[in-house]
Predict the 3D structure of the following.
Amino acid sequence: QVQLQESGPGLVKPSETLSLTCTVSGGSISSYYWSWIRQPAGKGLEWIGRIYTSGSTNYNPSLKSRVTMSVDTSKNQFSLKLSSVTAADTAVYYCARAKAMGFDYWGQGTLVTVSS
Amino acid sequence: QSALTQPPSASGSPGQSVTISCTGTSSDVGGYNYVSWYQQHPGKAPKLMIYEVSKRPSGVPDRFSGSKSGNTASLTVSGLQAEDEADYYCSSYAGSTYVFGTGTKVTVL
């Protein structure tokens, strides 16, 4: 059974860079797309982007200028960096396995708060 | 890339059916048979309930069904049970990107 676990700081200062890592266990990270999705408190889901294990990426156009994703197949991990954060980036961040048909495995989510 | 439109709320009594709509455009819902639906209970991660418009992952009850017509997809929950009370989100592949719906809170009366 594939499991995903997000990790990273829960508090980030405004204008700084949010950094999260997702560790995949129970299966190989290879040959799949992997996504980051976020959800502000009380609001809906927002797709941030996806990365293939080759390193190829696609990002949400609304966040593209601030997002960088990377993958480390040797550690079965992929990562998210979101720069120049503001309070509007405060949310629960989920990592998930992405297929064209949908997101079939999700992490439990990690709350990131942007505050000084 | 705008969010897909869902009704904010839907409700039904136990045993009844409820249908949730998800309206997009020809660039997402109408352009691909890659609409998926997610159930999210409070404080939990979303769970895939329907993929490729109408297919159910293993373990999802057959009370959940999906369909699509043009730019609008629908999720129907038949024989409502108390545990079906949750938020539901649709999502569509949009050609190397994805878009989610605005979400619908389903209440079991």
User: Anything to note?
Assistant: Chain A touches chain B at residues 35, 37, 44-47, 50, 58-62, 94, 98-104, 106-109 (CB under 8 Å).
